Amino acid sequence: MLLHEVAGWNASARLGGLEDEGVISRREGSGTYVRTYKGTGNRNPFHIISGLDSRPSGTRKELVSISTVAAPDFVADALGLPRKAPVILMVRKLLDNEAGADELITVDESYLLPERFAGLTPERFTKGFLEDDTLYKFYDREFGIVIIRQKCKVRFERVAADGALPRRGFSLICSVDEEDFMRGSEAAIDAGWVGSREWVLDTEPTDGQIQVAHKGRTWFEIEMTGVTAHASQPWKGADAVAAMAEAVCALRRAFAALPVHDELGPSTITFGQIEGGYRPYVVPDRAKVWVDMRLTPPTDTAAAINMVEHAIAVAEATVPGCHGSYTVTGDRPAIERDPASPLLAALKCTADDVTGTDTTVGFFTGYTDTAVIAGKTGNRNCMSYGPSSLALAHKPNEYVPHADIVRCQQVLIALADNVLWDASGQVGA
Questions:
Q1: Which of 226, 317, 349, 358 could form a disulfide with 238 if both were Cys (CB 3.0 to 4.6 A apart)?
Q2: How far apart, in whole angstroms, are the C-alpha atoms of residue 154 and residue 55?
Q3: What predicted TM-score, i.e. pTM, was given to this entire model?
Q4: Domain ranges of the chain
């Protein structure tokens, strides 16, 4: 059996495409209607049977048609049939009736082998499908067919055929605090869940690229103290805000002179938060700034500390009576590409094969959990490959394109097939 999902969860955004494919018709002043669909579209099928066991509250499934049709090419290929072989096509629509009016959400096509579902008619389906049924239950009760997820089925068949258990283990690690101090990935390392020998892949948004390198991430808190006085007599005080301004400018000049990495580009500095002073008429005796540095080799945290210390010295000399101090609150090293990485080779080959394109290998502009693992363990097989784009992150309308999810799903499943049963002898868990 093959489920072919025609519309996604947001049907309203895809009605135009469905109308072009002959699935629906739209009549001005009347509404949108499901047409008798002949199954000739060129949409890509999902090979996992999904969404049949449950549905959102306030919705119902309604049978559109059951008919025998010539198998489209993608169905024939998926089911191992000759081209144009007869198959049973069941079309159902999911309607949202929570508000008392039926609104189309999805249209599902199920292509069934005639010899396994002989006697399936609209009348039998309508009579035999109980109120609390799912398709799984119906097929089991009426035809004695138990449906399992095809991806799992493929793997079970491989094991049953030749006893070939995976040559490597596979672990899924879900971490916390990945946007801040990344204590989740550090805890995973401390617990021994991941170390220097594993192949580690995250699914951060990478714009279709494999991203294998990271700028370092070093954080500072810089504080400046001065002497308060009335603003009408500033010479009696020491302006901590003015001193901090001198330190900020000195750091900006220092970063402008740093060398540029061939792949990762320039080191950058951001003064993400600053505070100081009390009132406009008072010389401020304190100021504090939080600094984010994204460092590229050869610049590292030791070099950054030297720049901060020099900037503080400049500030103290320029604004007498002020004194500066700093604390390093984050220290993540830069991660450079390892051209000899076996994970990179395997992922690049798989992505190229699945997508039919030459997959770009680049670098991730932020910092990831896999970069933490690489930096703390020396692991050179840590990288990112995931759907969407970092440019869409932290936006009011942040989203992930559905096509990107499907692409990454296909690549990662193929990678697992290629790697977990690989007999090359490469290490990795």
A1: 226
A2: 26
A3: 0.58
A4: 2-160, 183-214+336-420, 217-332
